[in-house]
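Researcher: Good morning. I'm working through a list of sequences from a screen, and I'd like to move beyond sequence-only analysis. For each chain I'm collecting a predicted structure so we can compare shapes side by side. This is the next one on the list. No need for commentary yet; just the structure.
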Amino acid sequence: MKRIIVILLAVASLLMLESRAQDYRFEVGPSLGMTGYLGDVNNSNMWKHPGITGGGMFRYIINSRWAVKGNLNYASISGNSADIDSKFPVETPYEFKSSLYDLGGQVEFNFFHFGSGPTYKHYKRLSPYMTVGLGAVMSSTSGHTNVALSLPLGVGVKYKLKERLNLGFEFTMRKSFGDKIDNLTDLYGVQHGIAKNTDWYSFAMFSVTYEFSKRCVKCHYID
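Model: Good morning. C-alpha coordinates for this chain:
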Protein backbone atom coordinates (compact mmCIF):
# COMPACT_ATOMS: atom_id res chain seq x y z
CA MET A 1 0.00 0.00 0.00
CA LYS A 2 2.84 2.37 0.87
CA ARG A 3 4.49 1.70 -2.49
CA ILE A 4 1.26 2.56 -4.32
CA ILE A 5 0.95 5.84 -2.39
CA VAL A 6 4.58 6.73 -3.17
CA ILE A 7 4.08 6.00 -6.89
CA LEU A 8 0.90 8.10 -7.02
CA LEU A 9 2.64 11.01 -5.28
CA ALA A 10 5.56 10.76 -7.69
CA VAL A 11 3.29 10.82 -10.73
CA ALA A 12 1.36 13.80 -9.32
CA SER A 13 4.63 15.64 -8.67
CA LEU A 14 5.80 15.07 -12.25
CA LEU A 15 2.52 16.40 -13.62
CA MET A 16 2.76 19.50 -11.44
CA LEU A 17 6.35 20.13 -12.47
CA GLU A 18 5.49 19.82 -16.15
CA SER A 19 2.44 22.03 -15.79
CA ARG A 20 4.67 24.89 -14.68
CA ALA A 21 6.19 24.88 -18.13
CA GLN A 22 2.95 26.32 -19.51
CA ASP A 23 2.43 30.07 -19.11
CA TYR A 24 -1.38 29.99 -18.93
CA ARG A 25 -3.90 27.66 -17.38
CA PHE A 26 -7.10 28.22 -19.37
CA GLU A 27 -8.39 28.65 -22.93
CA VAL A 28 -11.73 29.87 -24.16
CA GLY A 29 -13.16 30.43 -27.62
CA PRO A 30 -15.84 29.76 -30.24
CA SER A 31 -16.10 26.84 -32.65
CA LEU A 32 -17.95 26.33 -35.92
CA GLY A 33 -18.32 23.46 -38.34
CA MET A 34 -20.37 20.74 -39.98
CA THR A 35 -22.45 17.84 -38.62
CA GLY A 36 -23.18 14.36 -39.91
CA TYR A 37 -25.66 11.67 -38.95
CA LEU A 38 -25.77 7.86 -38.96
CA GLY A 39 -28.89 6.11 -37.75
CA ASP A 40 -32.15 4.43 -38.63
CA VAL A 41 -32.61 6.39 -41.88
CA ASN A 42 -28.95 6.66 -42.90
CA ASN A 43 -26.61 3.71 -42.45
CA SER A 44 -23.83 4.47 -44.94
CA ASN A 45 -22.88 8.08 -45.76
CA MET A 46 -22.92 10.40 -42.75
CA TRP A 47 -22.43 13.46 -44.97
CA LYS A 48 -25.48 12.70 -47.16
CA HIS A 49 -27.39 15.56 -45.50
CA PRO A 50 -24.76 17.71 -43.72
CA GLY A 51 -25.85 20.19 -41.08
CA ILE A 52 -24.18 23.00 -39.21
CA THR A 53 -22.87 23.23 -35.68
CA GLY A 54 -21.51 26.05 -33.56
CA GLY A 55 -20.75 26.68 -29.94
CA GLY A 56 -18.16 27.52 -27.35
CA MET A 57 -15.45 25.66 -25.49
CA PHE A 58 -13.43 26.05 -22.30
CA ARG A 59 -10.17 24.19 -21.83
CA TYR A 60 -8.05 23.65 -18.70
CA ILE A 61 -4.40 23.10 -19.64
CA ILE A 62 -2.92 20.52 -17.27
CA ASN A 63 0.46 20.49 -19.04
CA SER A 64 1.88 20.43 -22.56
CA ARG A 65 0.50 16.92 -23.18
CA TRP A 66 -2.83 16.83 -21.30
CA ALA A 67 -5.91 19.06 -21.21
CA VAL A 68 -9.53 18.86 -20.07
CA LYS A 69 -12.20 20.54 -22.19
CA GLY A 70 -15.84 21.46 -21.70
CA ASN A 71 -18.10 22.36 -24.61
CA LEU A 72 -21.63 23.48 -25.38
CA ASN A 73 -22.76 23.17 -29.01
CA TYR A 74 -25.87 23.62 -31.10
CA ALA A 75 -26.22 21.41 -34.17
CA SER A 76 -28.70 20.50 -36.88
CA ILE A 77 -29.04 17.05 -38.44
CA SER A 78 -31.43 15.53 -40.97
CA GLY A 79 -32.14 12.29 -42.79
CA ASN A 80 -34.42 10.59 -45.29
CA SER A 81 -35.32 6.90 -45.57
CA ALA A 82 -35.17 7.23 -49.37
CA ASP A 83 -31.36 7.09 -48.99
CA ILE A 84 -31.47 3.47 -47.77
CA ASP A 85 -31.06 0.78 -50.45
CA SER A 86 -32.84 -2.01 -48.56
CA LYS A 87 -36.56 -1.36 -48.06
CA PHE A 88 -39.65 -3.27 -46.97
CA PRO A 89 -42.44 -3.55 -49.59
CA VAL A 90 -44.94 -1.45 -47.60
CA GLU A 91 -42.53 1.05 -46.12
CA THR A 92 -43.80 4.55 -45.39
CA PRO A 93 -41.08 7.13 -46.25
CA TYR A 94 -39.62 8.84 -43.20
CA GLU A 95 -37.86 12.21 -43.24
CA PHE A 96 -36.73 14.28 -40.26
CA LYS A 97 -34.85 17.40 -39.17
CA SER A 98 -33.53 17.67 -35.62
CA SER A 99 -31.95 20.38 -33.50
CA LEU A 100 -29.31 19.10 -31.09
CA TYR A 101 -27.99 20.75 -27.93
CA ASP A 102 -24.76 19.02 -26.97
CA LEU A 103 -23.09 19.49 -23.56
CA GLY A 104 -20.07 17.54 -22.44
CA GLY A 105 -16.50 17.22 -21.29
CA GLN A 106 -13.47 15.62 -22.91
CA VAL A 107 -9.92 14.65 -22.00
CA GLU A 108 -7.26 15.46 -24.62
CA PHE A 109 -3.80 13.95 -25.15
CA ASN A 110 -1.35 15.82 -27.38
CA PHE A 111 1.09 13.65 -29.34
CA PHE A 112 3.75 16.38 -29.00
CA HIS A 113 4.57 18.88 -26.26
CA PHE A 114 2.26 21.64 -27.44
CA GLY A 115 3.31 25.22 -26.77
CA SER A 116 5.90 27.87 -27.48
CA GLY A 117 9.05 28.75 -25.60
CA PRO A 118 12.83 28.21 -25.46
CA THR A 119 14.24 25.57 -27.83
CA TYR A 120 15.49 23.35 -24.99
CA LYS A 121 11.90 22.75 -23.84
CA HIS A 122 11.14 21.00 -27.16
CA TYR A 123 7.70 22.59 -27.59
CA LYS A 124 5.86 22.18 -30.88
CA ARG A 125 3.58 24.86 -32.31
CA LEU A 126 1.63 22.14 -34.15
CA SER A 127 0.38 18.95 -32.52
CA PRO A 128 -2.23 16.31 -33.34
CA TYR A 129 -4.23 14.95 -30.42
CA MET A 130 -6.85 12.37 -29.52
CA THR A 131 -9.85 12.89 -27.27
CA VAL A 132 -12.53 10.97 -25.40
CA GLY A 133 -15.24 12.15 -23.05
CA LEU A 134 -18.80 11.97 -21.79
CA GLY A 135 -21.75 14.25 -22.37
CA ALA A 136 -25.46 14.66 -22.86
CA VAL A 137 -27.49 15.54 -25.93
CA MET A 138 -30.98 16.99 -26.12
CA SER A 139 -32.73 16.57 -29.47
CA SER A 140 -35.81 18.40 -30.67
CA THR A 141 -37.72 16.95 -33.65
CA SER A 142 -41.19 18.06 -34.78
CA GLY A 143 -42.09 19.20 -31.28
CA HIS A 144 -40.74 16.05 -29.58
CA THR A 145 -37.82 16.39 -27.17
CA ASN A 146 -35.48 13.61 -26.07
CA VAL A 147 -32.44 13.61 -23.78
CA ALA A 148 -29.68 10.98 -23.76
CA LEU A 149 -26.10 10.43 -22.69
CA SER A 150 -23.43 10.67 -25.39
CA LEU A 151 -19.89 9.37 -25.82
CA PRO A 152 -17.56 11.53 -27.97
CA LEU A 153 -14.48 9.91 -29.53
CA GLY A 154 -12.19 11.73 -31.91
CA VAL A 155 -8.96 13.28 -33.11
CA GLY A 156 -7.82 16.80 -33.79
CA VAL A 157 -4.92 19.13 -34.44
CA LYS A 158 -3.81 22.33 -32.66
CA TYR A 159 -1.67 25.16 -34.01
CA LYS A 160 -0.25 27.97 -31.89
CA LEU A 161 -0.67 31.09 -34.00
CA LYS A 162 0.73 33.40 -31.32
CA GLU A 163 1.76 33.07 -27.69
CA ARG A 164 -1.85 33.12 -26.42
CA LEU A 165 -3.83 32.47 -29.60
CA ASN A 166 -4.53 28.97 -30.95
CA LEU A 167 -6.27 27.52 -33.98
CA GLY A 168 -7.76 24.05 -33.93
CA PHE A 169 -9.65 21.47 -35.94
CA GLU A 170 -11.41 18.48 -34.38
CA PHE A 171 -13.43 15.58 -35.74
CA THR A 172 -15.50 13.54 -33.28
CA MET A 173 -18.00 10.72 -33.62
CA ARG A 174 -20.60 10.89 -30.85
CA LYS A 175 -22.53 7.81 -29.78
CA SER A 176 -26.02 8.57 -28.50
CA PHE A 177 -27.37 6.14 -25.90
CA GLY A 178 -30.98 7.14 -26.42
CA ASP A 179 -31.67 6.07 -30.05
CA LYS A 180 -34.10 8.95 -30.61
CA ILE A 181 -32.09 11.89 -31.93
CA ASP A 182 -34.04 11.25 -35.16
CA ASN A 183 -37.26 10.75 -33.14
CA LEU A 184 -37.34 7.15 -34.35
CA THR A 185 -36.56 3.96 -32.45
CA ASP A 186 -36.55 1.80 -35.57
CA LEU A 187 -37.62 2.49 -39.14
CA TYR A 188 -39.49 -0.82 -39.37
CA GLY A 189 -41.03 -0.75 -35.89
CA VAL A 190 -38.71 -3.40 -34.46
CA GLN A 191 -38.15 -2.76 -30.75
CA HIS A 192 -34.69 -3.42 -29.32
CA GLY A 193 -32.52 -2.62 -26.33
CA ILE A 194 -29.91 0.10 -25.88
CA ALA A 195 -27.13 -2.34 -26.87
CA LYS A 196 -28.41 -2.23 -30.46
CA ASN A 197 -28.87 1.53 -30.58
CA THR A 198 -27.89 2.82 -34.02
CA ASP A 199 -27.80 6.62 -33.57
CA TRP A 200 -24.49 8.42 -34.08
CA TYR A 201 -23.74 12.04 -34.94
CA SER A 202 -20.46 13.68 -35.85
CA PHE A 203 -18.86 17.11 -35.50
CA ALA A 204 -16.12 18.47 -37.80
CA MET A 205 -15.27 21.81 -36.18
CA PHE A 206 -12.76 24.64 -36.43
CA SER A 207 -11.99 26.67 -33.30
CA VAL A 208 -10.12 29.78 -32.21
CA THR A 209 -9.07 29.95 -28.56
CA TYR A 210 -7.43 32.52 -26.34
CA GLU A 211 -5.30 31.60 -23.31
CA PHE A 212 -5.59 33.45 -20.01
CA SER A 213 -4.88 33.23 -16.26
CA LYS A 214 -1.09 33.28 -16.09
CA ARG A 215 0.42 30.65 -13.84
CA CYS A 216 2.10 31.68 -10.63
CA VAL A 217 5.46 33.30 -11.42
CA LYS A 218 6.70 33.27 -7.82
CA CYS A 219 7.70 29.63 -8.24
CA HIS A 220 10.26 30.85 -10.82
CA TYR A 221 11.64 33.38 -8.36
CA ILE A 222 10.84 36.42 -10.50
CA ASP A 223 10.96 39.70 -8.59
